[in-house]
């Protein structure tokens, strides 16, 4: 793939992935996942197995999956405890500098889709179409460089002939920082985020995000960050103006094998049950 501005979905993603998202299940859920896999395309061919379990109150659900990779093609298959089957086929470079993704689901086969991504040194393009009788269509385009990029995305519903979404964004990336502004929800929400790295390895950083919903005049301001206690342990924290505090502790047990413990609770309502999550990823 070429080193260009990236996809539109990448705008603002660094700040969200770093500290503004916490690994948790639903309300008061405990999530336990075990992941046995290797990085995509690290070998020409291999087979990986995955399994995860989610506990919701007194009910436990989970899924079992398999991933097969051969050269520039990968196939993923997942089956959950409710007999839902999903399969994803990814192919690189069918057209030079492109990625094609086909997703199929059963029995809800109409939720499947076909997506095409194209990368250029100064632009990227994605097009996705649903696999149904009246397929929805999503398009996005990004222009710029790895340092500066702007883009937009839109969703079109063929049954009604109306736009279901349209979003625009801009991002500026430097070696030690990144800032982005996104106008979404059909112009009803604006979100700005900034991330500043404290070290060259980008393990310690500070993040700030502010969003405003115009229809309700609701403002949300979130601050957070990550701090590397040592070469094996990382702590992440986030707090917003509504009193929601989230923390993550991640420790590398052995090379590339991580255990992650996360929690989230409302500081303005300490009587509510906190949310917890646990993740274990073992990678050979």
Automatic annotation (TrEMBL):
Record InterPro entries: Porin_dom_sf (IPR023614), Porin_Euk (IPR001925), Porin_Euk/Tom40 (IPR027246)
Any single Gene Ontology cellular-component annotation: mitochondrial outer membrane
A molecular-function term among this protein's GO annotations: voltage-gated monoatomic anion channel activity
Keywords: Ion transport, Membrane, Porin, Transmembrane, Transmembrane beta strand, Transport
Main location per the UniProt record: membrane
Subcellular location: Membrane
Role according to the record: Forms a channel through the cell membrane that allows diffusion of small hydrophilic molecules. The channel adopts an open conformation at low or zero membrane potential and a closed conformation at potentials above 30-40 mV. The open state has a weak anion selectivity whereas the closed state is cation-selective.
The family this protein is said to belong to: Belongs to the eukaryotic mitochondrial porin (TC 1.B.8.1) family.
Protein name: Voltage-dependent anion-selective channel protein
Protein's organism: Buddleja alternifolia
Lineage: Eukaryota, Viridiplantae, Streptophyta, Embryophyta, Tracheophyta
